[in-house]
Amino acid sequence: MHRTDIFLQPLRLEGREIQIESQWLHTQSNPGPGAEPRPLIVFLHEGLGSLSQWKDFPQRLCEAAGCRGLLFSRPGYGRSTPRTEPWPQDYLQRQARGLLPAYFDALGLQHEALILFGHSDGASLALLFAAYFPARVRALAALAPHLFVEPITITGLRAAKTAYEQQPSALKAALGRHHADPDSAFYGWNDAWLRPGFEGGWNIEADLRTLACPVLALQGVDDEYATLAQIEAIRRLHAPTRLVALPDCGHAPHKDQAEAVIAQTLALLREAGA
């Protein structure tokens, strides 16, 4: 795998100039002159994630699939422009409608059907984008997605806040290795989900009724932030969805069960003809 240097992609969004920390991945295999380029897998990170926090998983998946890859940190994360205000309750819906198409267009991907690989918040964002722009998505792997808020989710968020605000905080130190502004990353996510009214008012099930691409919905049986009701809801909305519940696996399947996740994603790509 050839991993290119990280770059900052300029983007004008909602009247503001921002920069998006980005990175391309290219496989060593060459399809040959005149051949179609290999499919592109776009990795969408979790609510506390960033480009660097994927570590070597995207390389391993892209190499196994023979695909190109794109990693990026959303605004407020990694080395992208920090947020300047709290995320609104519908921040994922807004990012799916505004940020993602603008970013993909800025990279010249207007006419390429993408393969989306999302984790947690990133999985919800991938599902929303695929539902809003079905012609732009070839296949989608959603790991530990959130479609609605459960009591276990709130419990996990409160525990994370306690851990972050401890002195000294191992969580804050860990995030500081991956985010230029760890407070921007942490409180943007944590405050939005713990805001009064979010628990009973946030639900994206109705948004996902227009899903059209092959979907892999995968979750750990021991997920500390959600139950399997999340991925089961996806199949109720989109019957072709393939559900996978991994034993001995928590909220980060690509870390806890990397080989199983790669195998399941390769099966998805075969189903999509990629």
Write the layout of secondary structure elements.
Blueprint: E1 2-3, E2 7-13, E3 16-26, E4 40-44, H1 57-65, E5 68-72, H2 91-106, E6 114-119, H3 121-132, E7 137-143, H4 151-165, H5 170-176, H6 182-194, H7 198-201, E8 215-220, H8 229-237, E9 242-246, H9 253-256, H10 258-271
Parallel strand pairs: 4-5, 4-6, 6-7, 7-8, 8-9
Antiparallel strand pairs: 1-3, 2-3, 3-5
Helix pairs in contact: 1-10, 2-3, 4-6
Structure description:
With 274 residues, this protein is of the alpha/beta class. Helices cover 38% and strands 20% of the residues. It has ten helices and nine strands. Strands 1, 2, 3, 4, 5, 6, 7, 8 and 9 form a nine-stranded mixed β-sheet that branches. A hairpin with a 2-residue loop joins strand 2 (7-13) and strand 3. The radius of gyration is 18 Å and the shape is globular. The chain starts with a strand and ends with a helix.
Provide a concise account of the structure shown:
The protein has 274 residues and is of the alpha/beta class. It has helices at 57-65, 91-106, 121-132, 151-165, 170-176, 182-194, 198-201, 229-237, 253-256, 258-271, and strands at residues 2-3, 7-13, 16-26, 40-44, 68-72, 114-119, 137-143, 215-220, 242-246.
| CATH A-level architecture | 3-Layer(aba) Sandwich
Work out the number of β strands. Answer: 9
Q: Helix content range of the residues, please? A: 25-40%
CATH homologous superfamily label? Alpha/Beta hydrolase fold, catalytic domain
Could you describe the largest sheet, including whether it forms a barrel?
Answer: 9 strands, mixed
The share of residues in extended strands comes to 15-25%
Rg is 18 Å
The helix-and-strand class reads: alpha/beta
CATH class: Alpha Beta
Number of helices: 10
- The number of domains is 1
**CATH topology grouping:** Rossmann fold
